[in-house]
């Protein structure tokens, strides 16, 4: 009898331990294969999404010659150099296999044909003549910071940056304002042709910029806006995506709130500005992120209307590194990293706003 | 404070007529309750008064002024919504001050009014909270507070208690009655709950399918409903409505009630023998009788509420009859009881359901 109950007790304990061991259970519990599969899947996702960015950032610190190297290296490497007494300039360092089979680190003085004349940095009197295939460069990790500093100093990059910031900020503000006004009308009011108006707005989504490039360019020219930043800002200020996004969100706002505003003697502007806009904040921040990304990365339209260097935006400025005959990849990559920074920051700071939904409407 | 007048107010949504010509006058300081089943148009009528809906036809006058075409913001009315409709992004204080800011009052005046209303509604401790941090009852009080700070011409309430639990509903109902006694404004209140209507109203407006069925004080409606609809709607449990046939009307109204003869002393109303009528009697006006009973019934169900007992009983050929007994009646299912109607409390309705004129 006693042994039976003891046995039952230990059985219960065993099953409890097994239960605890599953799913992030006790320490040392082996991961279930589904956990491993999930982690592997997530790791692949990270690699796919973040790999190119990491490659870009690391490559931006490579020298021009290191970029063209084959096979390519992941980290930026540079050949080590040493100062040798009796030599006016620092000399590149090589690891050399000598005819007797020993390996030494030697500095190369000059190269003649397939032979290299080398010295031992520790003993400059000792000179060697080595076939070039017997030597290998000694390399160390080195960040070519000049990829960043040189274009920032030489080119008008701060100016381009300023132009880009101006275009992005002003265009985003205008976009938010007029899109939310259009969305307010299409979501809150009842009027004849409301459906048709909405369809027309959505319909413009189907017309790509390339098709209307020329007519819009002509309009902008007539308005005398060519080579002004307003030519970049104004034509794209009203986006169908933005109107649609905000309208759909505003439709979810309780009608009672708007009617309560009317009863509270609020004017239409006050209802829009003090009731609807604050409650639409999550959708507005989504649109703001989109708008910033669109405007910051916009290329084709600014390229068409901006022809003077002083009004270039960053993306157009970057294009200058890409010549007809050669591309300065090291500058291009470094400046691409610079242009990525603001968009990343915007996303980091605004993404929290997206998730705070309207769960807090205070309605029951 | 103001009086309100509706003249022939009609409202259609496309082909659907919701209000069929409403004529109504509400006196200054009166508490009027619109009551009716769902879909009867009572909320639409309130929204028409508020200005949130325009009338298709007819006129709305407030204080003698025609306001038919004026938008809600210019009618100077305040409304408490069923959902409360508190602005979720504003604190309680801001919620109450919003209308006052729109009216262009000075901030000292706004503060004074908000503080006064908050004190009256016991909200002073919650002024800086957001609505979502309040309980249902507190939200309800904020919604009322938002209306009373305005000092509007008329207060409109759209089923304000329907989101509260039973206990809180009774408490808030009393508070509303006290509030009306204290500030004395003209109030119009919409509900589908006839108990709320009976307890709060100076006058009740009973609506059905977009028409006013009867207007009167709660007891008027209770004692002399003008038709079977009002008779059935007002009072809980419902009035018993029993089909009968006239057999004679010569100073004594003789009826045939499912094969039993009933005679009531009543001045002749010229009812031809054979005419169908409906006999109405409230559950509390039926008495149990051992001898010379009008009807013999079999008990179906007994509800003991402690202070009173409801007995549901039936007889062949008649709908189920409800009786109310004071105290705790010792009755059981299946028991056979005799009942007698209290003649002065009998109601008679004609074929169309309208009350036969009382002598």
Properties at a glance:
heterodimer; A: 364 residues; alpha+beta; SH3 type barrels; MetI-like fold; two-stranded antiparallel sheet; elongated; disordered N terminus; disordered C terminus; B: 359 residues; Rossmann fold; OB fold (Dihydrolipoamide Acetyltransferase, E2P); 2 domains; five-stranded antiparallel sheet; 8 helices; 20 strands; transport (chain A); transmembrane (chain A); membrane (chain A); MetI-like_sf (chain A); cell membrane (chain A)
How are the SSEs placed, and which strands pair?
The complex is a heterodimer of chains A (364) and B (359).
Chain A: H1 2-21, H2 33-59, H3 64-67, E1 77-79, E2 81-82, E3 91-97, E4 103-112, E5 115-120, E6 123-131, E7 135-137, E8 139-141, H4 146-154, H5 157-188, H6 194-203, H7 209-222, H8 229-233, H9 240-251, H10 255-263, H11 268-279, H12 281-297, H13 300-305, H14 314-319, H15 329-355
Antiparallel strand pairs in A: 1-8, 2-3, 3-4, 3-7, 4-5, 5-6
Helix pairs in contact in A: 4-15, 5-9, 5-12, 6-9, 10-11, 12-15
Chain B: E1 4-13, E2 16-26, E3 31-35, H1 42-50, E4 57-62, E5 65-66, E6 77-80, H2 92-102, H3 107-120, H4 136-148, E7 154-158, H5 166-183, E8 186-191, H6 194-200, E9 203-208, E10 211-216, H7 218-223, H8 228-233, E11 240-249, E12 252-257, E13 260-265, E14 276-281, E15 286-288, E16 295-304, E17 308-314, E18 321-326, E19 336-341, E20 347-349
Helix pairs in contact in B: 2-3, 2-4
């Amino acid at each position: 009898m006693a042994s039976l109950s003891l046995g039952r007790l230990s059985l219960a304990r065993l099953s409890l331990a097994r239960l605890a061991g599953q799913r992030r259970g006790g320490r040392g519990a082996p991961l279930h294969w589904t956990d491993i599969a999930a982690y592997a899947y997530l790791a692949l996702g990270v690699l796919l999404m973040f790999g190119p960015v990491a490659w870009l950032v690391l490559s931006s610190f490579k020298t021009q010659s290191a970029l063209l190297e084959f096979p390519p290296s992941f980290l930026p490497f540079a050949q080590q150099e040493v100062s040798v007494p009796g030599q006016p300039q620092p000399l590149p360092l090589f690891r050399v296999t000598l005819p007797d089979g020993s390996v030494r680190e030697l500095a190369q003085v000059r190269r003649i044909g397939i032979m290299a004349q080398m010295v031992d940095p520790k003993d400059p009197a000792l000179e060697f003549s080595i076939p070039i295939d017997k030597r290998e460069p000694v390399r160390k990790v080195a960040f070519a910071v000049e990829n960043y500093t040189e274009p920032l100093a030489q080119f008008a990059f701060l100016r381009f940056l300023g132009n880009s910031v101006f275009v992005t900020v002003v265009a985003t503000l205008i976009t938010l304002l007029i899109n939310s006004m259009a969305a307010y009308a299409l979501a809150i009011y009842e009027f004849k042709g409301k459906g048709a108006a909405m369809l027309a707005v959505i319909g413009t989504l189907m017309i790509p910029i390339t098709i209307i490039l020329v007519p819009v360019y002509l309009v902008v020219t007539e308005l005398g806006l060519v080579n002004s930043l307003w030519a970049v800002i104004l034509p794209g200020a009203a986006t169908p995506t933005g109107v649609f996004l905000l309208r759909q969100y505003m439709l979810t706002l309780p009608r009672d709130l708007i009617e309560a505003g009317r009863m509270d003697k609020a004017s239409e502007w006050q209802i829009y500005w003090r009731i609807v806009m604050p409650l639409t904040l999550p959708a507005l921040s989504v649109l703001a992120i989109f708008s910033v990304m669109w405007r910051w990365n916009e290329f084709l339209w600014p390229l068409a209307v901006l022809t003077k260097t002083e009004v270039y935006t960053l993306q157009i400025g970057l294009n200058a590194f890409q010549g007809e005959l050669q591309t300065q990849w090291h500058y291009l990559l470094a400046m691409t990293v610079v242009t990525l920074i603001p968009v990343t920051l915007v996303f980091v700071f605004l993404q929290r706003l997206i998730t705070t939904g309207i769960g807090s409407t205070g309605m029951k | 404070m103001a009086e309100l007048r509706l003249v022939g107010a009609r409202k259609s949504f496309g082909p659907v007529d919701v209000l069929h010509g409403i004529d109504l006058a509400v006196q200054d300081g009166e508490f009027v309750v619109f009551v009716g089943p769902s879909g009867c148009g009572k909320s639409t009528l309130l929204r028409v008064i508020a200005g949130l809906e325009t009338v298709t036809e007819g006129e709305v006058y407030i204080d003698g002024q025609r306001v038919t075409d004026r938008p809600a913001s210019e009618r100077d009315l305040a409304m408490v919504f069923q959902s409360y409709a508190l602005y979720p992004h504003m604190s309680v204080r801001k919620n109450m001050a919003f209308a006052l800011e729109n009216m262009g009052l000075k901030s000292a005046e706004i503060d004074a009014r908000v503080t006064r209303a908050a004190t009256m509604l016991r909200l002073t401790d919650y002024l800086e909270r957001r609505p979502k941090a309040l309980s249902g009852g507190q939200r309800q009080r904020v919604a009322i507070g938002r209306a009373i700070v305005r000092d509007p011409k008329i207060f409109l309430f759209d089923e304000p208690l329907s989101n509260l639990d039973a206990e809180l509903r009774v408490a808030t109902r009393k508070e509303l009655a006290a509030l009306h006694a204290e500030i004395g404004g003209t109030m119009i209140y919409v509900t589908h709950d006839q108990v709320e209507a009976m307890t709060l109203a100076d006058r009740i407006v009973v609506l059905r399918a977009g028409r006013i069925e009867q207007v009167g004080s709660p007891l008027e409606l209770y004692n002399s409903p003008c038709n079977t609809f009002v008779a059935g709607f007002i009072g809980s449990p419902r009035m018993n409505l029993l089909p009968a046939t006239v057999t004679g009307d010569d100073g004594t109204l003789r009826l045939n009630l499912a094969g039993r003869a009933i005679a009531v002393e009543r001045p002749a109303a010229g009812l031809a023998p054979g005419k169908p009528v409906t006999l109405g009697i409230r559950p509390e006006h039926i008495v149990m009788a051992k001898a010379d009973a009008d009807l013999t019934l079999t008990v179906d169900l007994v509800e003991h509420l402690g202070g009173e007992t409801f007995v549901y009983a039936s007889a062949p050929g008649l709908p189920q009859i409800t009786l109310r007994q004071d105290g705790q009646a010792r009755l059981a299912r299946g028991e056979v009881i005799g009942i007698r109607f209290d003649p002065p409390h009998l109601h008679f309705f004609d074929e169309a359901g309208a009350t036969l004129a009382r002598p």
